User: Fold DNA-binding protein from Sphaerochaeta halotolerans.
Amino acid sequence: MIDFSMYDFKEPEIMAYKCEKCGTLYYPAPMICGKCHSRRDPVSDAHWETFALKGPCTLLTWTRLWNLPEGYNKKYLLFGIVQFDNGLRASGRLETDNPVTGMPLVATVVSSDERPGKPVNVFVFKEAE
Ligand SMILES: [Zn+2]
Assistant:
């Protein structure tokens, strides 16, 4: 038997949260719902529904980052903040040559090992087809 447990074959995902009581959506998840004060158990996420945050979104604002640390073979990186149809906002890497505020994008998630330590899932926003 080969032990596959160290491999993660699942597509990387970033989860958003839905308050069990009032249905308010959150990303990232708070300890306590800001609307109805329902408490989330951070270990088990008991009763709070989770769902993968991805898909169509709109670019709210963006910035170009120059002077990247050693190890990058690009001159700059683009970062953006987007809003999803459900109202949630997230920040991540922007992969488009001509970012325009208000443009439609598609949010995907990649596993990134750019930072030291364990790989983390980050958003990558691409131009909508
Ligand atoms: Zn609530």
